[in-house]
Design brief:
This protein is α+β, with helices and mostly antiparallel strands. It has 11 helices and 7 strands. The protein has a 4-stranded mixed sheet with strand order 4-5-7-6. The protein has a 3-stranded antiparallel sheet with strand order 1-3-2. α1 packs across α2 and α5 runs antiparallel to α8.
């Protein structure tokens, strides 16, 4: 028979109000909250960690890195991308993953691409990939802070506020990619030319490019993109695979 504190904790984890990303600390507070409400004995450390292990084994929680979990009880279909900032401080989901999820490319995968802010006075961030079995790969790219959050740029141009974690708008994701592809510090290649860039908010795109000081780089990429679009062979291949 499950202890009352476990029933209380898992019932809360199942609720829509529960967080999707949890830490060992927040889960410990949850386990102890029943004790605070009822005066019952709080679980011992060994009991608590055995419960955590059981939740992971039952796929009620998914561990993405040491001490960070995804709550699959209350949010079974939420994107693991929400955990990015818990894996690397300041990480923003951007680049190809955002464009894929916006339906602007056809290259869907299980890689969560992110940018991390850097500054000359800061230590170099950890950029190694993090592969999480059953979830995918988190890939991090360093980017100057003044390009990640350009001065005077509109917050709604930079961040997609439909999400409750730091995630770039599709326009910012494309510009981040173009910026990194033109940086000697990055190994990223230019964005593919089969992106449906005409579906982006063009005014937002130009505003951000101006604030990021990469208008020439955007113009050069758009010129190549338009040439690709105008290629008769490209049109023939695209129509061949049209559905409906």
């Amino acid at each position: 028979m499950n202890a009352a504190w476990k029933v209380h904790a898992e019932k809360w984890l199942m609720s829509p109000e529960s967080p999707f990303v949890l830490t060992t600390g927040s889960l410990r507070l949850l386990a102890e909250s029943h004790h605070l409400d009822t005066g019952a004995r709080a679980p011992a450390n060994a009991t608590f960690f055995r419960w955590l292990k059981d939740l992971v084994a039952a796929e009620k929680l998914s561990e993405v890195t040491k001490g960070v979990y995804l709550n699959r009880l209350g949010h079974p279909s939420a994107s693991p991308a929400a955990a990015a900032s818990h894996m690397r401080r300041g990480a923003v989901v951007s680049l190809s993953y955002v464009l894929e999820q916006a339906g602007l490319t056809n290259n869907f995968g299980e890689t969560f691409t992110c940018v991390i802010p850097t500054h000359a006075s800061w230590t170099t961030p950890q950029l190694s990939e993090r592969r999480v079995p059953g979830i995918g790969t988190f890939r991090f790219h360093a980017m100057r802070l003044d390009r990640m959050e350009p001065q005077d740029a509109r917050t709604e141009d930079i961040y997609d506020r439909r999400f409750d974690y730091q995630r770039a708008t599709p326009e910012k994701a494309l510009l981040d990619w173009i910026y990194l592809a033109n940086s000697h510090r990055s190994r990223l290649v230019a964005p593919p030319l089969d992106i449906n860039a005409d579906e982006l908010d063009q005014r937002r795109l130009l505003r951000l490019a101006r604030k990021m000081a990469i208008e020439p780089e955007l113009s050069a990429w758009r010129q190549r993109w338009q040439q690709h679009r105008d290629d008769p062979e490209v049109d023939a291949n695209a129509s061949r695979f049209e559905i409906g």
